[in-house]
Amino acid sequence: MEFETLATGYGLLEGPRTDEQNRLYYSDIRGGGVYRRNPDGRIETLIPNRKAVGGIALNEGGGLIVTGTTLVQWNEQTSQLRDLFSEWDGKPLFGLNDLTIDDYGSIWAGTFGCDISQFDFKSTPPPGSLFRIDPSGAVTKLWEGVEVTNGLGFSADRKLLYHCDSTTCAVWAYDVRADRTVSPRQLFAKLPEGMPDGMTVDIEGGVWVAVVAGVGEVVRFKKDGTLDRRIKVPGKTITSVAFGGPDMSDLYIVTANNDQRELKGTVFRTRSDIPGLPVPKARF
To answer: Where are the beta strands (DSSP E) in 42-138?
Structure first.
């Protein structure tokens, strides 16, 4: 694969997502901010200074839903942020990371069980949880016991939810019931090296996973969980991956550094021979 550099010079990039105008949204967890890159290369700062945004969703009525210490809705007309999910059982959240969206416009997101910025990744952290946040405002706790929550994505038939749990070095899968609760998770795939970060799904059911922790690759698992591809990226810390473009065959990869370390977090684009599965919009 050949990689095109679209933007660089950031801290730790996350949450890539594209819209119908082929504009790319992404966040900088370390430096702060949510950004939008236009097809002509112009980059806009949409939400300045908001740190720890691991997940971004496009909203049906305009604007965005983004994670961080809380889940918020961003109004593009007013630039205002509105909290959608900020506490559970009367206690503030430690933060939410990656997210995905179902066909009802609900957000599915994982929470941390501790302040992840203080965690050394040398031990097992307190467990985080998987939640569903509905446009009505209802919040449902679906699963508890996630070590370090990361990428999420549904299968094409929405019967499976994939979930990257970084410190387990694995991608897990839940059966999604008709009432949109989930079964206990089961192992889908173990990474050959490194830890999983963000992920996306293609139209064949393949699961593409960004491998963090210095391995410098994206891996693709077939829908049966077998390893299919290991794609070397011109970077060492690969944080997330997403499909986009008019034919959903543009593959966007974001990093926290690359082989030229002074360039820091970078947005790469390449082409895939398998198109990606479109992700629905939120309906808040």
So the answer is: 43-47, 56-58, 64-66, 71-74, 81-85, 87-88, 91-92, 96-101, 107-111, 128-133
Quick: pLDDT tens for 216-269.
999 999 999 999 999 999 988 999 999 999 999 999 999 997 655 555 899 999
User: How far apart are alpha carbons 133 and 84 in whole angstroms?
Assistant: 8
Q: Nearest 5°: phi and psi at 117?
A: -70, -20
pLDDT of residue 263: 56
With contact defined as beta carbons under 8 Å apart, do 146 and 130 qualify? yes
Q: Report pLDDT for 213.
A: 83
CB within 8 Å of 157: residues ≥ 6 apart: none
Burial 76-95 (b: 16+ CB within 10 A, else e): eeeeebeebbeeeeeeebbb
Amino acid at 248: M
**Residue of 226, 161, 171, 162 lying closest to 194 (CA atoms):** 171
Sorted by where each starts, the structural domains of the chain and their CATH numbers stand as 4-271 (2.120.10.30)
pTM equals 0.96
